[in-house]
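Project standup — Tuesday

K.O.: blocked on the structure for the chain from last sprint. Re-posting the sequence here as requested.
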Amino acid sequence: MTICCSHSEDEHHAISTCQEVTHYPSEDYPCLCSGFAAEQSSDRCSRCGHARAQHATARICKPATGEYCGCRREV
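H.V.: unblocked you, prediction finished:
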């Protein structure tokens, strides 16, 4: 059991997402990049090219049972 929910620690996974908006001439949409490596030394993400500071890492819960758990903690 973890402090954020009743699920085990091994059911929690670190995810990274880019908060930057991608601009196209006709529309803007959120960057779909995930998996940014926080330990990279560059100031830019090698996957999407956006600034490192625009990427957020969080721990989310994905229970083995497949049930939904809203547990999410920024790290």
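K.O.: great, moving the ticket to review. The radius of gyration is 15 Å. DSSP finds no helices and five strands in the chain.
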